[in-house]
Amino acid sequence: MPTVRGCNLPDDLLYDVENNIWYREGADGTVTLGMTAIAAGMAGQLVAFTAKKAGRSVEAGKSCATVESGKWVGPAKIAFAAEVLEANDALTASPKLANSDPYGEGWMVKVRPKDWAAAKAGLIPGTAVAEPYETKMTADNFAGCA
């Protein structure tokens, strides 16, 4: 697993580095996504999470959820057009799961991509994500995960 400045980036995931989002491909054609440890570290302790409702369509580059911490409120932008199938109710009830377990219990939404083959081609595999994240963290002036 790549680790950049103390931030874990599991190599079995795909990444949208620009938006700090990870993607896990399901065998059933669905994709689960969440915030990276880097996003959680930059945001600080999450205090609220609000996802789009199941059945809603989300266009590429648009918000599939809103995330709020003590110092930041903003969108979780999806990299591709999709239909929201499920939101993580546990994360809504306890937003700090995104900080304590960003790649497990802290997932945000499960979606069905409109064109997964095209979407996947635009994401970075975990095995190749260390260098792009090192560059982004330098540009964002982010020292790393505690």
Secondary structure layout plus pairing:
Blueprint: E1 3-4, E2 7-8, E3 14-16, E4 21-25, E5 31-35, H1 37-43, E6 46-51, E7 57-58, E8 63-69, E9 73-77, E10 82-87, H2 89-93, H3 97-100, E11 109-113, H4 116-121, E12 124-125, H5 130-139
Antiparallel strand pairs: 1-2, 3-4, 3-12, 4-5, 5-11, 6-8, 7-10, 8-9, 10-11
Report what the structure shows:
By secondary structure, the protein is α+β, with helices and mostly antiparallel strands. The protein has one domain: OB fold (Dihydrolipoamide Acetyltransferase, E2P), CATH 2.40.50. Helices cover 22% and strands 34% of the residues. The protein has 5 helices and 12 strands. The strands form 3 sheets. The protein has a 7-stranded antiparallel β-sheet with strand order 7-10-11-5-4-3-12. A 3-stranded antiparallel β-sheet has the order 6-8-9. The chain has a two-stranded antiparallel sheet with strand order 1-2. The longest helix has 10 residues, at 130-139. The radius of gyration is 14 Å and the shape is globular.
Would you summarize the structure shown here?
This protein has helices at 37-43, 89-93, 97-100, 116-121, 130-139; strands spanning 3-4, 7-8, 14-16, 21-25, 31-35, 46-51, 57-58, 63-69, 73-77, 82-87, 109-113, 124-125. The mean pLDDT is 95.
